[in-house]
Amino acid sequence: MLNPRVALIVGLISISIFPVLVKWAPVSGITSAFYRMFFGFLLILPYVFFTKKFTWPARALWLPIILCGIIFASDIAVWNLSITLSNVTQATLLANLSPVWVGVWSFLFLPDKPRATFWAGTVVALAGIVILIGFDHFLEMKLDAGFGLAMLSGVLYAAYMILSKSVLDKVDIVTFMTVNMAASSIYLFLICIFFGQPISGFEPEIWSIFVIQGLICQLIGWLALNYAVQKMDAKRVSLSLLSQAVVSGLFAWIFIGEKITLQMIIGGVVILVGIAITYQNKKQIGVIENTDKDT
Fold this sequence. Notes:
mainly alpha, disordered C terminus
């Protein structure tokens, strides 16, 4: 049985290369999102067919699974639209508020309330995000349509994490992913048509990048992440995904030569410290407190 934390790391690394692949494929972000989902769906079908792992969901589960696909696809589409109306920095910062929304939703509506370590870790990690992208960008944010869409992206991502956690407690991951990606593909295809985004006429190199996105970023990445969501606390997984900014930065440095500054390194370290705080359990905290008293 795969360790959920290992699955979380595998999923994190797999999805973090997506921004680099998007830069390699000079097409619309929504088009990239569509083909990421579509090829992920196509690539899971042979596995489903030959292993017969697909289990027909109960009637009551079809709507939540499809809704998960639509919410996830909406998050991608809204985030890309927010970038076109503002900038990547603002959109990234506001979308990364998703752990806060997961925590608020859990506090208000779920029996599993966030612990103090979650809120402390969230504050530290978000401070790391601000450091990573720069205080000047943070202070220059405008309350415009781009701001609203970026905020909505964070809310949608949080909604996906909470809803998928409840669904994955009742259905196997392969079945969930198959239906989820089918719904997302159809929905994103309609979004592309509605906004007049290109869906054909690409060079062979672009098609190969789409396939890699579908295989690594979507299929492998979200099979691993959904396994982590199924086995772990959704709040913790959501907060851990903030480190995607750090991993994506490393990939950008390695593959496309983007610079890594001291400010980015400090911000990345702060993000990781914040995430580490949320992994402190009560027993560990008690040991630390007792050690402090002895000294």
